[in-house]
Amino acid sequence: MGTSLDQVDDLRSWLELVNELGELKVVEGAHWDLEIGAASDVNYRRTSPSALLFDRVVGYPQGARVLSGSMSNARRLGLTLRLGTDLDDRALVQALRSKPNQWIENAPRYRARVVDSGPVLENVDHADAVDLLRFPVPRWHEGDGGRYIGTGCAVFTTDPNTGEVNAGAYRMQVQDDGRAVSVNIEAGKHGAMHVREWFAKEGRAPVTASLGQDPLLLIVAGTEVPRDLSELDYAGAVLGRPVDIIRGEVTGLPIPATAEIAVEGWLYPDRKADEGPFGEWTGYYSGGSEQILTMDVERVYHRNDPILLGAPPGKPPHDYSYMRSVMKSAMIHDALVSTGLAGLEGVWAHEVGGGRQLLAVSVHQRYAGHARQAGHLTAQLPAAAYMNKLVIVVDGDVDPRSLNDVMWAVCTRTEPGRDIDVQRYTWGSRVDPLREPGAPPYNTRAVIDACRPFERLAGFPRVAETSRELRDRVLAKWPDALG
């Protein structure tokens, strides 16, 4: 009997099913210093990347493993979202239509469930025994300033006043020869807001982080879930059952009960260490080295033979760029529907922009100004506002997923002097390679109207391409030659 989708409840059962589907490759003998990262980078650039499980890492015992490429194709991402095990790109996009809104609506029914024990408690190291380098933590990129244990992670913080839990995917660099770890949180993220509130109230902030878990938790930690909603509850809605958590011994914050590795400790305003540089999702070593808040690690929890979940960014395509593109596209689509925008055909957050910087929106124009409305709404939606730079609005006959078709529309339907609007002082990022060192993380973004002029819809030149009916006819006539 094989593993069924409803039996997947942790990273190990996820791997069992992925292996049964022929989607997993095991790599033995790689070195933690650059070789794991380089092999992962080569893999991402294949047409349909496999999940790579690194074992027998140089200097480490068999069983101390690192996973990368977990969700870099449609089949594994569909599996992780519990939508099916045989989805291709188009079927995955269709299956996700309206799902984010449903998950948000249903999340309160699936609040995380506190349990007394779980596999993550198989080993518990106290502060005097903490050594994060006992795990095969990679140095992922040649220009990285250190070894990053937190790339495919879920970092948990709470609101000190309400107890609201947030999970974010923030990069974490090993510090102090394995005794500490820095947590690099963007100032505008929910986790950073929680930390500032704890500092103001208590002078320190509690944090836990899962470093290997069901990849679903990486998805929800890495996407914009509404602030008043716990990512754990959102994950429960995706699963159709609550996520089991334990409470940390020191802080009481949640830790997934089936996590492979987790850390717990405190952040202090004056406890910082040099962090970076790091190859970021923009494709650059952005930001150099900075003083970043560093956790005093009080506990390390881990299973026997633990698996570190890696999701290193870099020049797209990278480990999670495909996942982010799909998830952001679905969330932005649902958010636009919620605004009441008419005529929406589709949305795609292009992988070349890391799933954030280049957004294409396809609409069937209903009235003068419709295209601009769609573009400006998209540019500032909470699900889309962080770090986007280009929002391109195209007609309903243009596939927003095809970068070739989108740029063809820009070239043939955009009058630059009239059809490009610029928004200034918008929500940027410290990792933007264009940001001057020390400058506030603003950015500027353009809304490009690549639709036919509304007043010329009836008389605009016809597109010179084969009709769908004729294309289907010749495909049926010569299937072997034309695929």
Give a short overview.
With 483 residues, the chain is α+β, with helices and mostly antiparallel strands. The protein has helices at 11-20, 35-44, 74-80, 89-96, 99-106, 190-202, 215-221, 231-239, 321-339, 370-380, 403-413, 416-419, 468-477, 479-482; strands spanning 24-28, 51-55, 65-68, 113-114, 123-126, 148-150, 154-158, 165-168, 171-175, 180-184, 205-212, 244-247, 254-256, 261-267, 272-275, 290-302, 307-309, 344-349, 358-363, 390-395, 420-427, 442-450.
Walk me through the structure.
The protein is α+β, with helices and mostly antiparallel strands. The protein folds into three domains: 1-93, no CATH class; 97-305, Pnp Oxidase, Chain A (Roll), CATH 2.30.110.10; 321-456, UbiD C-terminal domain-like (3-Layer(aba) Sandwich). It contains 14 helices and 22 strands. The model has no long low-confidence stretch (mean pLDDT 94). It is an enzyme of class 4 (lyase).
